[in-house]
Amino acid sequence: MFCDKAMELVRELHRAPEGQLLAFNEDGLRQVLEEMKALYEQNQSDVYDRLLRIRALRWEYGSVLPNVLQFHMSAEEMQWFNHYKKSLATYMRSLGEDEGLDITQDMKPPKSLYIEVRCLKDYGEFEVDDGTSVLLKKNSQHFLPRWKCEQLIRQGVLEHVLW
To answer: Which residues pair with 124 in a beta bridge?
Structure first.
């Protein structure tokens, strides 16, 4: 188990009579340093895996994470998430025409351009491509462009009605 060698070195030091110094345990210290290196590498791997998951959350939930997810993130992770979402937004604005291109939409090719959705909570006015507005109230159903709905579906405002 990790730290056993380090604890043994500390115990050896405490067992030595007062005022005396034991022989330097080079082998024990080398083993402790190897354990520390292995722990450091494991920690780096865990941090990297966590950042990959946080990056995936941006694609799944959009630029605003639910509070329950933010609660489980450190301040540094939130800072990293905010930097990532700004970098992604800058990149998307650089694509396409004047308004850019939202590459987070249509993660899978759609079977149809319009879908039927049910509103799970009151959201308010929602503007569609042609300039018309739709009032999204809890339990109301609408037939809307898929790409306009996907973000709200991921946020839990709408659900796709499947027949």
So the answer is: 136
Question: N- to C-terminal Cα distance for the chain?
Answer: 55
Q: What is the mean pLDDT of the chain?
A: 87
Q: For tokens 């396409």, what's the residue?
A: 96
Burial of 79 (0-12, 13-18, 19+ CB in 10 A): exposed
Cβ 29 vs Cβ 9: under 8 Å: yes
122-138 CB burial, b ≥16 within 10 A, e <16: ebeebeeeeeeebebee
Query: At which residue do the structure tokens 């190897």 appear?
Result: 34
- 73 pLDDT band (50/70/90 cuts)? very high
| Residues β-bridged to residue 127 | 133
| Structure confidence by residue, pLDDT tens digits, 41-69 | 999 999 999 999 999 999 888 888 999 99
What's the pLDDT score for residue 110?
65
Neighbours of 118 (CB within 10 A): 14
Q: Which residue has the tokens 């030091």?
A: 13
